[in-house]
Amino acid sequence: MNEKARPSSVAPGRPGSGVYPSNPLGESHEGIPTGRDVEWEPLVDFRRLDVSENTIHGAIAWVHGKEVIHSFGGNVLVYGRSMMKPLLMKSFTDVLDDVLTDKQKAIACSSHNGDTEHVATAQSILSESEWGLMQCPLDVPLVQFGRQVRRPRRWFHTCSGEHAALLRGLRLKGINRAGYTLPTSSWFQEYVGQLRDMLHPEWEPLRIAKDGCGLPTVSNTVNELATLFAALVKTKDDDWIWGSMCRNPDLIGGFNRLDSTIIKAGEGRVLAKEGADGLLGIAIEHDDWPEGLGIVIKIAHGWNSQATWYVARAVLGVLGIEFRNPYPLHRQKAFIVSGIVPDVYLEKLETVVTWDEWDPDRDRFQILENQDEGTPTNPHGNEGRM
Description:
Distance between the termini: 63 Å
Strand content: 15-25%
Number of helices: 12
Shape: globular
Radius of gyration: 23 Å
CATH class: Alpha Beta
Order of helices and strands: EEEEHHHHHHEEHHHHEEEHEH
Number of domains: 1
Helix content: 25-40%
């Protein structure tokens, strides 16, 4: 396209006019399907008295070792975002092993809420004289209770623990910390090499972009991401990643965060990590899957805590891992699409409810013949009751 005709917020020909997309409808690039090109599938729908009001689309992959055993919604190309932190930190496990505490190791793999304990733990990784090296963006806490913090700080950013640990690791490796957020820094090439070892000797990322925190993030398909999380199971005893995250689940996300809740429910046999824009990666040590089970969920439209929670609760429920849901819908109920699990688990899926005993139907006008009956003890008992 002629530079003078390129759409821009800056007048054509002036400095900065070339750093905008060339077409507001989107450009096509060979081998890079956009979200409108892939076959997303419905994962869960929210119904009010039998009528679907919201249908959440996405993709899910199950991988045993390196074998894809189930894929639903297409093998979508996405960025792993913060879901990749346990894998990224594997480049620093050796040098950080003897210098970080167990809590500091956990916060290094976190996308934390930014509460007092999270900030204090992240800050403790670096000396105060090194704080100025931090390049994650200014932010306020992701989740706040009571008095609201209004002054942004780098330490409140959900990725501050990762940045601090990365800077500490670079110093111990003797690598220049200037420009540590750039893909040209030597640690990044080591990280890509580790992903290649887990995936395929000839694997290369199709795109390397700048993540929300400023670090590089690489593109992977959903199947590849699930393969990487299956590898976390096989390598769980090789370093401190698995143990530190499982022993400190509230440092990984925080209060009412899905990954923290899953880690607690897994009791040492499940690792979970959320990623921005609707990603959840789960690594599961399970007797039925001895090579390690990796499951990745991607919500098509991006971040949706309720939808991801319902899908994860159903997926883990068929594997015998149960947890509650802190996000009840308002006069709606969530209903899972059977395609999220392999055929072998379909019968089990029908027994995993998406609601709790304190969350009966409130989407219908009910007139009970016997007012003394009380609330049904069977969680299915209120469905369809008139």
